[in-house]
Each structure stands twice: as C-alpha cells, then as structure tokens.
Amino acid sequence: QVQLVESGGGLAQPGGSLRLSCAASGRTFSNYAMGWFRQAPGKEREFVAALTWNGVNTYYADSVKGRFTISRDNAKNTVYLQMNSLKPEDTAVYYCAASAKGSRWPLQRTSTYDYWGQGTRVTVSS
Fold first, then answer.
1. Which pLDDT score is estimated for 30?
2. How far apart are CA 124 and CA 85, in angstroms?
3. HSE of 22 in the Cβ direction (CA atoms, 13 Å)?
4. Of 16, 70, 76, 88, whose CA is between 20 and 30 Å from 122?
5. Long-range pairs for 40-44 at CB < 8 Å and ≥24 separation?
6. How far apart (Å, rounded) are the C-alpha atoms in residues 117 and 36?
7. Which of 80, 24, 85, 76 is nearest to 49 (CA)?
C-alpha cells in the first residue's frame, strides 16, 4: 500500500506559478512510476505529466508542455509539479498517482495507476 498526499495548490494569477508536491509513504517510493492528473468541474480526469521510477523519462500533455515540469526526489519520497505561465484553463483539482506496473503500461492512462492521492485544488484567476 502507498499513501499519497498532495500539497501546494491554491490561487494563482494568469501567468503566475505554483509548485505542487506529492509526498508518498508506505512501500518503496523508487519502485513506482509517478503521474499527475487533473480534473476540472464537469470534465473527466486528464493526464498532465508523468515520469519513470528513476526520473529519466518524462511525459507531458500537449496542453502543458513547455510550461509544466515534473520531477522527483526519491530520497524524500516526493514528486513535484512545477507549473509556470499558468492559464485559467489550468484550473482543476490536481491528483498524483503511483504505478507499480511495468514499462509497457502507458503512463498517460489512469488505468495504469494503482494508488491515488486526494487531490489539491488549483485556481487560476485574476
């Protein structure tokens, strides 16, 4: 079992920045690929970013590429999402997720993940 707790959400102005953190506890964090997803009101949960257990390979949704950066610190059992140049359409609840499935499972899919956090709300508004 892995417990995931997100933090760092809040209100940001368009063009501003936020840094989300996801702290993991339980089993060995470095065994898991990690992802960030988001869900806006009335919409389905969508992929934002993901990275492999060692952080070597990263993946981004087209909508955030060049603006968001995912990273991890396995010594701190934490994954981060640095969000820059925020837009109103980035407003959503952001969830981190952990996957113990093998590399053949696409990290862009929600079904790849075994554990989910409770989410942190991000609002981008002037």
1. 87
2. 10
3. 28
4. 76
5. 40/89, 40/91, 40/92, 40/93, 43/92
6. 10
7. 80
Pairwise CA distance, residues 108 & 117, whole Å: 17
Residue (of 58, 5, 17, 10) closest to 34 by Cα position: 58
| Per-residue confidence (pLDDT) for residue 28, from 0 to 100 | 87
User: Facing residues of 121 across strands?
Assistant: 93
pLDDT given at position 103? 76
For residue 45, give the nearest of 53, 54, 36 by alpha carbon: 36
Strand order, beta sheet including 68-73: 2-7, 18-26, 78-83, 68-73
Q: Distance between CA 75 and CA 92 in Å, rounded?
A: 29
Give the chain's radius of gyration (CA, Å). Answer: 13
